[in-house]
Amino acid sequence: MQSIIYRHSSSLTHSDVFCSVETATPIPxxxxxxxxxxAVSVNPVDTKIRSGDVIVPDAVTALGWDAxxxxxxxxxxxxxxxxxxxxxxxxxxxxxxxxxxxxxxxERLVGPKPKSLSFAQAAALPLTALTAWELLFDRFGxxxxxxxxxxxLLIVGGAGGVGSMLIQIARNLTNMTVIATASRAESYEWCLxxxxxxxxxxxQPLAKEVAALNIGPITHIAALTHTNRHFSALAEVIAPQxxxxxxDDHEFLDAVPLKAKSVSLHWEMVFTRPLYQTEDMIxxxxxxxxxxxxxxxxxxxxxxxxxxxxxxxxxxKLAHALVEQGNMLGKVVxxxxxxx
Length: 340
Prior knowledge:
Pfam families: ADH_N, ADH_zinc_N_2. This is Zinc-type alcohol dehydrogenase-like protein. One of its GO terms (molecular function) is zinc ion binding. Keywords: Metal-binding, NADP, Oxidoreductase, Zinc. It contains ten helices and 15 strands. Strand 8, helix 4 and strand 9 form a beta-alpha-beta unit. The chain is of the alpha/beta class. The chain has two domains: 183 residues, Alpha-Beta Complex (Quinone Oxidoreductase, Chain A, domain 1), CATH 3.90.180.10; 128 residues, Rossmann fold. The strands form three sheets. Strands 3, 4, 5, 6, 7, 14 and 15 form a seven-stranded mixed sheet that branches. Strands 10-9-8-11-12-13 form a six-stranded parallel sheet, with helices on both faces. A two-stranded antiparallel sheet has the order 1-2.
């Protein structure tokens, strides 16, 4: 089978940053699905692993942790799926990524693909939907479907992949007032279309932008990008006993300013469950199954904004370049089939 491998600790200026090679067809383990990959989305984690900023095992030679495809074979202990099923998933960066014709993934990390979406539209969802869901319901402890809560959620970086899903999930499954940040006209309109009640400009002083809304205390903050740049403002606007969740990477983060307000700080890393093989690893299957139901019901929508075809070295390099620019709306996906 064909796989696209990457050069470790490389930039996009390297001529051999990606290379298409012939590799052996993988054999499913007891809990594995062998998936014929139809589409893969590129995320910041792909670019960080490629550049060496995030370390993975040396045996991982292919990137790609946001995929949709068709099951070709299953392991002996698999009970959730069968060959022929259409699925979507993020998987685990401790194993090979999905930039291959065929890919192995633990069934506990996989959901049934939304029937109403193409493979490309579905591949745009798993990693960001899982991150947003875990941040809101696991880290913050908000109850899904509970419409009596009156909290306010500030999402820093609302137009990115995770922000785009978090706006939708918070607006449709909770009673929270959703405030997103954006800095361009197109990202401002994007956040409003996704359901944000308010959009403020994170290129301006955030405390003043929040105060101008005159909507009361900010009880929850999802800091999705450039957290160090905004942290003093976040500490200022967060309500006493509020909660802040962070997903971006830091060499150092000074949380001392949160002490006086008894603010709790939460980290969300979508690969924690597969990385540590936690007892509740099947939560990824359960969350993605619920996401699929909500998508097919028209409650949630794919955030695919750029689809590339075919799945080759040139388009993979282009997708990485688009993500590294840091100003994409939604998600970029590379598809093995011609876009409709």
